[in-house]
Automatic annotation (TrEMBL):
Source domain of life: Bacteria
InterPro entries: DgoD-like, Enolase-like_C_sf, Enolase-like_N, Enolase_C-like, Mandelate_racemase_C, Mandelate_racemase_N_dom
Keyword field contains Lyase: yes
Lineage: Bacteria, Pseudomonadati, Pseudomonadota, Alphaproteobacteria, Hyphomicrobiales
SMART domains: MR_MLE (SM00922)
Pfam families: MR_MLE_C (PF13378), MR_MLE_N (PF02746)
The name this protein goes by in its record: L-alanine-DL-glutamate epimerase-like enolase superfamily enzyme
Coiled-coil ranges (or none): none
Tagged with keyword Lyase: yes
Amino acid sequence: MKITDVKTFVVGNPPPSFGGTWFLFVKLTTDSGVVGYGEAYNSTISPQVMRKVVEDVAERWLIGEDPHHIERFFRRAYSGGFTQRPDVTIMGAVSALEMACWDIIGKEADKPVYELLGGKVHERLRSYTYIYPKPELGETSAIYWDAEASAERAAEYVAQGYTAVKFDPVAPYTSFDPRQLSLEQLDLGEKFARLVREAVGSKADLLFGTHGQMTPTSAVRLAKRLEPYDPLWLEEPVPPDMPENMGYVQQHTSIPIASGERLTTKYEFQRLLVNQAANILQMNLGRVGGILEAKKIAGMAETFHAQIAPHLYCGPIVGAANIQISTCSPNFLILECIQAFGGFHADILKKPIQWEDGYIIPSSEPGLGVELDEKVAAAHAYDGHELHLNMGRDPLIV
């Protein structure tokens, strides 16, 4: 079996656009006609440039190769240009292509990918969602900074079956972070935790998500405010480039630290573990280097008695890959989903991901268990150049 063709799809995610403005999917085809789908999670360059990166990596290292040779492909791409170091952009491309290879391998074997990586450990997967505004309010709704509205929305999610909700009231984040939070921001963070806890009681965990906005000392100040409300985690309290600082935060709070959405490859996750910087690892399978790389990270985490909680802020193909790795990993904790994978996340697939009463039910279909609806993808083709996230805000107007 050889890979003969690669095709990319840049798909606009219509409003309210939960999960990003656009998704980048890839399709690999073999000489026997088997098709595999993958997805890249990358926001460092524009989607039109990123699709060229994916195609270039495929043409250099995959076309004409056997899709089963995952290790060979990863090492060639990882070492391309004599770099041999983690690179977010290249690993976004590698992740999408590697994911598509596993989809082909599973289809060829007539098995879900998780059965090829140790077998099913979990019959269902606990899930959580961000506290998103109601669809009719739009993505820019002030709910993100409105503690009362967020608490009300959290209670609605719990009524739907969720046992955990996430929120980040210390945003916005900028290119000029980390910063020392103001007393007003500290007060708001504590207010969110208090009101959401009052709204959900002991029926749901609180996931306090931040995005590296704080200095280590500021993160500790916030953590002390949050401890009475017993969050399940404090997410990425400091920037991801210095795990030693994140370890300092973990040493000064009883709240578990979660991190990893901006990291790639086992090498960066190893630094988290060795520095005791995080006990909950949030790899995004569209960025980390693919499914096998995520399995290696999960294995490393096991030796530290750490858990995995795969990250998702992109499309449902990454979501499907997250499900595969979670199903076969003993140290799985919880899975991020985008509003129960409804809306456009369901429309772009031929058959939606199954979510029931707060849990995801792993598919028994071969491969990744999902199929991209190429007609829908074509109807929502995106020709813009916007990044997923603009962090170029002036620090004087944060």
